[in-house]
Amino acid sequence: MVFYRLLSRLFPESFVAKVYAVVTAAFALPMLGILAYGLQAGFDELDRTLVAVVLSAGCAGLVLALLGLRALLDPVFAVAGALDRWGRVGQVQILPETYSDEVGRLMVRTNRMMARAQRSLDQSRQEADTDPLTGALNRRGAERLLRDAPAGWLMLIDLDQFRFVNDRAGQGEG
Predict the structure, then answer these.
(1) 73: how many CB neighbours lie within 10 A of its CB?
(2) Whole-prediction pTM value?
(3) Residue 138 to residues 22, 143, 172: CA-CA distances in angstroms?
(4) Is 122 helix (H, G, I), strand (E, B) or coil?
(5) Could you tell me which residues come within 8 angstroms of residue 90 by beta carbon, excluding any fewer than 6 positions away?
(6) Which residues neighbour 34 within 8 Å (Cβ) at sequence distance 6 or greater?
(7) In a structure prediction context, what are the per-residue pLDDT tens digits for the chain, which is 174 residues long?
(8) Composition of the chain by helix, strand, coil, percent to 5
């Protein structure tokens, strides 16, 4: 974590920049060594051509490595995006579970964590919105259900065996 902390000072908001810095340093240091050695020893025409070819190949390899690393990081960005979307709007995006490496296990665990948290949230909302005895919506639940409905209320009540009240006292009393 010490190395990560150091790179976080240089690139506080970009994981990709941290990875690119490590790869660039790994490619650049040997190239600079070759160049420094050549400058110290003195180049002849063949040496200059060879150094130019090696440096060009090294730069091309660096570009390919950086592009490949960016593509390899796509699943990590998918996990971050899914967690961000779930945190912002509560929408669970199922991540692929077909990979068996570390990132694949991260995706599986992220899916499980989001599903478990969403079930808990749904259960808490259900408990908060309904009467525990009857299961009917309480005021909070009705307000949430009708929040986007047009103005006005409609209430239907069905009482079991209410017919006996009407039979005994008459429909007016009922």
Answers:
(1) 15
(2) 0.62
(3) 58, 9, 29
(4) helix
(5) 118, 121
(6) 51, 54, 55
(7) 888 888 889 989 888 888 889 888 888 888 888 777 777 777 776 677 777 888 888 889 889 988 998 898 899 999 999 999 998 988 888 999 998 899 999 999 999 999 999 999 889 988 888 888 888 888 888 888 878 777 766 677 767 777 777 777 776 665
(8) 70, 0, 30
CA separation for the pair 102, 117 (Å, rounded): 22
Cβ neighbours around 6 below 10 Å, total: 10
**Number of residues in the chain:** 174
- b/e per residue 107-128 (b: at least 16 CB within 10 A): bbebbeebeeeeeeeeeeeeee
